[in-house]
Design a protein that fits this description.
The complex is a heterodimer of chains A (about 190) and B (about 300). With about 190 residues, chain A is mostly helical. Chain A is built from 6 helices and 3 strands, in the order ααααααβββ. Helix content of chain A is about 50%, strand content about 10%. The N and C termini of chain A lie far apart (about 60 Å). Chain B folds into 2 domains: about 30 residues; about 250 residues, Metallo-dependent phosphatases (Purple Acid Phosphatase, chain A, domain 2). In chain B, about 35% of the residues lie in helices and about 25% in strands. A 7-stranded mixed β-sheet of chain B has the order 4-5-6-7-9-8-10, with helices on one face. Chain B has a 6-stranded mixed β-sheet with strand order 3-2-1-11-12-13, covered by helices on one side. In chain B, about 45% of the residues are buried. Classes of the chains: A mainly alpha (about 190), B alpha/beta (about 300).
């Protein structure tokens, strides 16, 4: 009897928490793009405080030096960075859905063919806030796929490495975040 | 008999002496003024098939060049010989300008050193980005004349050029392309980028998705010619939708015997490295494709097709 009362009380007390988390999930599901864009804005504003302006130069040495500085400062801007900071579960689910629908949409054949012909990369070990693997080419990202993903600011790009969708920071050469298994084998 | 032998012997000695003197004279001439000797010999061997008209736009084309290997250097030497004769003053680069690492040494070995004679002569290079390029380093590298952008446009005489980044054809670039093609007053509109829209090569093939997105714009706004790389061969594709297509991805790299079934190409070359010379004069585009060996492997005259 006492046990049953405890269970009832516990269920009643957990009910608001359950509804609250449902509400959050619901809200997230409704606005994965907004959530993603907010996180991108936060990333950029943290970076902006640290960044250096780069101008065209004749000197490859200066280019290398400035890139190194940008890489270090970008890392410093988010020392605790980890996978999922940008691609939260809600955002990840949204991206996977978009990629899936692009690959199986009206232009799906062409998109898959482009992925096959674009010198596909093997799956390599990626790490947030680490340099995109040196000497690894940047596989082209099909234009139709880019049309179906949220627009990015100039300095960021979506890249495909094996089956992983990578958010790549061009100015620092760093991996901002990634979704493993987002792009099924074509 | 003995007299005869003696005569033959004397004649042979005289002949050898004469040959030795002639050779010595020849080498003295060459050594005394090597500069005067060498270019004359090189130029006299050049087979020039573009008309070199007054006020024409003349340029060279290279693709997939940045290996730093001997073949790249040899193509570059051949280009310099043709520059002296044809006075082309700029080069368009179809991507993969620097393969592998992008350290300062690589920029020297894979670009500055091989093309030094051209750079010293004031030839400008206009780069587009390939999948082996570092977009950040290369867009900011002044000798590539990208103005700090991944994609850009420039004008030479009556010809308007559009350098695109086919690695990342996002909606922003597509709308930029549409606006710039629409606004362009160029009589000739020429687009160049890395991934080919049509391609008979077996290694990569054509980029069908890219074609879906850019071709309607090319047609709507009257693009006349398209140059791409990526496939490490030379191909002239039969005109599609009133647009001429060239694939040149063998100015450094080479994919020997790469052609599949003959479908789209008019002319192909997959046994050596090459580069192109192009001249635009009035309503004509003249082209000549030259192998590393010096052999002209393709040439012709193409009228501007009105859209």
């Amino acid at each position: 009897m006492h046990l049953q009362a405890c269970r009832r009380r516990l269920s009643l007390s957990l009910l608001p928490i359950f509804f609250f988390s449902c509400a959050i999930a619901q809200k997230g599901d409704e606005n994965p793009v907004k959530e993603f864009q907010n996180r991108i804005d936060n990333y950029l504003s943290a970076k902006k405080k640290q960044d250096i302006t780069k101008k065209p130069t004749d000197s490859p040495g200066k280019l290398a030096q400035e890139k190194q500085q940008t890489t270090e400062k970008t890392r410093e801007a988010r020392p605790q960075a980890q996978r999922g900071d940008i691609f939260t579960p809600t955002v990840t689910a949204y991206f996977k859905k978009q990629i899936e629908s692009t690959l199986h949409g009206p232009d799906g054949d062409k998109v898959r063919a482009s992925l096959r012909h674009a010198e596909p990369l093997p799956n390599v070990r990626l790490q947030v806030n680490a340099r995109y693997p040196r000497n690894l080419p940047l596989q082209s990202t099909p234009p139709t796929l880019l049309m179906n993903l949220p627009t990015l600011p100039k300095e960021l790009q979506y890249r495909i490495v094996g089956s992983t969708l990578v958010l790549y920071d061009m100015s620092s050469g760093l991996v901002v975040d990634f979704i493993p298994g987002a792009v099924p084998a074509t | 008999m003995k007299q005869n032998r003696g005569m033959i012997y004397r004649k042979a000695v005289l002949l050898i002496a004469a040959c030795a003197l002639a050779l010595a004279g020849h080498f003295r001439t060459a050594q005394a003024d090597p500069k005067a000797f060498a270019p004359q010999a090189a130029t006299s061997k050049l087979d020039i098939r573009i008309p070199l008209q007054d006020k024409s736009v003349r340029f060279a084309v290279i693709g997939d060049s940045g290996t730093g290997d001997r073949a790249q250097y040899e193509v570059a030497q051949r280009m310099e010989a043709y520059r002296e004769a044809t006075k082309f003053d700029f080069v368009i680069m179809l991507g993969d300008n620097i393969y592998g690492s992008h350290s300062p040494k690589d920029f020297v070995k894979k670009f500055e050193q091989p093309y030094k004679p051209l750079l010293d002569a004031g030839v400008k290079f206009y780069a587009s980005l390939g999948n082996h390029d570092d977009p950040e380093d290369e867009r900011l590298y002044k000798p590539f004349n990208m103005g700090g952008e991944r994609y850009y446009a420039f004008r030479k005489g009556e010809a308007a050029f559009f350098a695109l980044d086919s690695n990342y054809m996002d909606p922003k670039q597509l709308s930029w392309l549409e606006q710039n093609l629409k606004d362009s007053q160029g009589t000739w509109k020429i687009c160049f980028f890395h991934h080919p829209l049509y391609n008979d090569g077996r290694h990569h093939g054509a980029d069908a998705d890219l074609r879906t997105q850019v071709l309607p714009l090319f047609q709507r706004y009257g693009v006349n010619a398209v140059f791409s790389g990526h496939e490490h061969v030379y191909q002239r594709i039969k005109p599609e939708n009133n647009i001429y297509y060239f694939v040149l991805g063998n100015s450094g790299k080479l994919m020997k015997h790469d052609f599949g079934k003959f479908r789209e190409r008019v002319k192909g070359f997959d046994t050596d490295q090459s580069f192109m010379l192009v001249e635009i004069a009035g309503d004509k585009l003249y082209f000549q494709t030259i192998a590393r060996s010096g052999e002209t492997i393709d040439s012709g005259e193409l009228p501007r097709i009105h859209h």
